[in-house]
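Consortium newsletter contribution from the modelling node. Members have asked for a concrete example of what our holo predictions look like. Here is one, prepared for the S-adenosylmethionine complex that several groups have been discussing at recent meetings.
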Amino acid sequence: MTEPTHHPGRAPRVQREVTSFVRRSTRMRPVHLRAWERLRHAYVIEVPHRATSTSIAPGHPLDVAAAFGRTAPLVVEIGPGTGESLVAMAAARPEADVLAFEVYLPGVARAIGRLHEAEVTNVRLLQSDAVDGLTHLLGPASVQELWTFFPDPWPKVKHHKRRLVDRAFADLVTSRLRPGGSWRLATDWADYAIQMRAVLDPHPALVNAATDPSGWADRLADRPLTRFEQRGIDAGRTVRDLHYRRR
Ligand SMILES: C[S@@+](CC[C@H](N)C(=O)[O-])C[C@H]1O[C@@H](n2cnc3c(N)ncnc32)[C@H](O)[C@@H]1O
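And here is the predicted structure:
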């Protein structure tokens, strides 16, 4: 990413040269395709896009109250994958509206199948790039809590520029969080955890809200163990949770 132009109260304008994801196959197993066709209208928000299907066109801010049919504190999840954390954590917060951005279509289809099975109704998903979503759909200080659990690690040094959590992304997230709002992150990649701390600890709009003097946060009690997290643990990696508050 290039450096953003920051204007207080507005999303920084980020001219992205690389994205945190690559286009993957959209092929789905028949069971997930059926879930997609049957349930997408209940859970998936369609928005105008630019050149690619995961992009979002500027100039069409989301009417969040209309999307959820009520006004409630807004939680945003970035990259829920197949929705393992999303479903459990949204179910535990019926008082909140949970909006999730996931670029991977089969993941979205699995997530809406899980939501339907669990009868969770306070979630809407966009099959879209979260950077475009935060930039173009959501207003300043509109988000109460934001979750970034196990973002793609891009372990090779030449790919580090694809990592989602960098200063430009932190500027964008903080512009969308309400004062006092929380940003919770987790990763099982030690150098990514350190990169997150290096970017977020000194960020002028954030306070590290971890209670432990080490600065690493306790695991959120109801954050379930996902397939990605289990894979990291099986490979001997240490999971780090991080918690920041918007000043
Ligand atoms: C490693 S997976 C983790 C999934 C899930 N959070 C978990 O813990 O099981 C990261 C996910 O982030 C999604 N992703 C990456 N960049 C994204 C972006 N810019 N916007 C939305 N989703 C993104 C990927 O498609 C992938 O599903």
